[in-house]
Amino acid sequence: MDTAEFSDWLSAIGRLSGEQISLALAELADFARRSGGVRKQPSAEARPEAEPPSGKGEGRKGSRIERDVLATIGEGKVERLGCAHCGADEIVGWGRSHGLPRYRCKACGRTFNAATGTAMARLRKKDRWLDPAQAMIDGVSLAKAAERCGVHPTTAYRWRHRFLSAPALDKPQMLQGIVEADETFMLESFKGRRSGLVRKARKRGGKARHPGAFSANIPVLVARDRSGATTDAVLTEDTAVFLSQALSSAMSPANLLVCDGGRPLCAFARRAQIPVRVVPAPGKPLPGEPDIHINNVNAYHSPLKEWVRRFHGVATRNLPNYLGWRRALKASAEPNPQRWMLGALGQGHYQQLTR
Questions:
Q1: Position 47 pLDDT exceeds 70
Q2: What's the pTM value of the predicted model, to 2 decimals?
Q3: Which of 70, 84, 109, 265 is the most exposed place for a label (fewest CB within 10 A)?
């Protein structure tokens, strides 16, 4: 633009009305907000050294974008739940710290962020959190997850189980209508333990000597209603006592329990006064009653075991976390890192339904 054109453009601004100027400024502000705002570039002397790229990220720009995404996820959680300490709704912004916005509760006067009170609290390197979240959605091994995130495998292991603490507890409060329940068994594993083994160590998971209820097999209960809501539990023993601990809060006499006739499940139903129907053979509905079957729960068992097999043995102490991992993947129609991070912050699929 030459001098004459600039003069014409400048004189045209003076002919605009106040309303037109306000509209133009509003559109400019909206454009700046959508494009991430305009930042003043520091001089060469004052410019800090570039941050190293995080894994396969995009360096400083990618880190800033990820921090903004985390901030948006955290804001959604705080708006839904209020104060992390007392649950009050009178919340005001209180600056920013370690990559997350902080808030202050007017009721109790305490400050907090979206991770306060969760397993994610005080976990560092927040600019890389979306990478392990995507790795968990893809179900990659620990070594591959560490490579993606550019961290040590021990850090990747710690992150994995911090990310799984909330999904492991994300279960439906109550199952509805017909509920199918059945146990499956997984081989006991002391993976990661270096001493105190009661047997010779196995390699790459190993195989069970006998199927079903056996001393080396860990019972895993899965119960599903016809809407797909799923609850599960690792049982210390396959008895009515431990089944009651796992199912008593999720079932009531209003439900109808369908099972294969196992004694522990029938004993639980009798004690809880829950109607029970026994199918004559797994996978086959009762004659004349096509809805009375356990096909859904059996269809959940097989993919679960196949999915766990990729990890070449899961330590029994970590098995509840892996069950929560699989349950979170099945509950989300289109899992993405943002939704996964929300679940890790205590707002998983079933937890959101109960708020």
A1: no
A2: 0.74
A3: 109
